Amino acid sequence: METSTSNGNPLQDLSDNLARIVERVGQGVVAVHGRHRVASSGVIWRHGVVVTAAHTLRRMEGIEVTLPDGRTVAAVLAGRDTGTDVAVLKLDGVDLDPVESGDARSLKAGHFVLAVARGDGFGASADFGVIGNAGGPWRTWRGGQLDAFVRLDGGLHPGFSGAALADAGGQVMGICTSGLVRGAGMLIPAMTVERVAEELLDKGRVSRGYLGVGTQQVDLSEAWIDKMNLSAKHGLLVNSLARGGPAEQAGVLLGDVLIELDGKPCCDIDDVHTVLGATNIGQPLKIALIRGGERTECSLTVGERPQRDSWR
């Protein structure tokens, strides 16, 4: 924590230090007007670049940003990634200093943190709490990869999605979001923000592989396991197929049960996401499945997930 001259009152010292952190971090936090009514927050990540929570943007054009000095300027959406809930805005003619970021992997359950947001007309806002849970890399339900799982101890106030989350030393660990877990505030780690922002600024989208299937986990019968000498007890039932998608083109049918991808057991959706990295796009993928009680195999070419949220 930042040092200060002690007045002999530890609580007052703590209070003063927290206020200083909010004031300093708040110089890198903006209000983002990309939806009706309540503005969200954003963080100055690079010179002329603001990052915010993608789910708070309800339009592609006409986005404005209120700066710490009270000016409101136009912003251009460079791109957004729903998988990690990161959006990048470009500001023309604005050259404010970016925040000082830190490594969210250092956070542990119980660590004190400060969420610093900005709304209309009231300057910076702060919320003080602790980390509720922290762990290693985590894949979101939309398929995005976060470099660390960091859950806050409660939900977020309106307008705090996109806010900076600072540790007790004043380093910004990433940005807050309510869009990844229902009823809980989550942190998008600074490492994730940097990686995704780089790709969005470069090409306006984040590339991910695509099979074009909807699945649900099912138990495999003991008869199937014995008959096919399977090492896993679960598979993925194909319950939907994208028209013209890689799986349909390869002959996969509704009701098939996926059991292997590239020779490795396919037990849950994480096993599918593992083979859908950007480097696998355009590459062949061997699939083993159960159809009519028999094992069958086919090969498909991994496609690129349709970019519904790319405007470049």
TrEMBL record:
Gene Ontology BP annotations: proteolysis
UniProt keyword Iron present: no
Alphabetical list of Gene3D superfamilies matching this protein: 2.30.42.10, 2.40.10.120
Presence of the UniProt keyword Ribosomal protein in the record: no
PDZ domain sequence ranges: 200-272
Keywords linked to the UniProt accession: Hydrolase, Protease
GO terms assigned for molecular function: serine-type endopeptidase activity
Pfam families tied to this protein: PDZ_2 (PF13180), Trypsin_2 (PF13365)
InterPro entries named in the record: Chloro_Bact_Ser_Proteases (IPR051201), PDZ (IPR001478), PDZ_sf (IPR036034), Peptidase_S1_PA (IPR009003), Peptidase_S1C (IPR001940)
PANTHER family referenced in this protein's UniProt entry, alphabetically: PEPTIDASE S12, PROTEASE DO-LIKE 8, CHLOROPLASTIC
Protein name: LuxR family transcriptional regulator
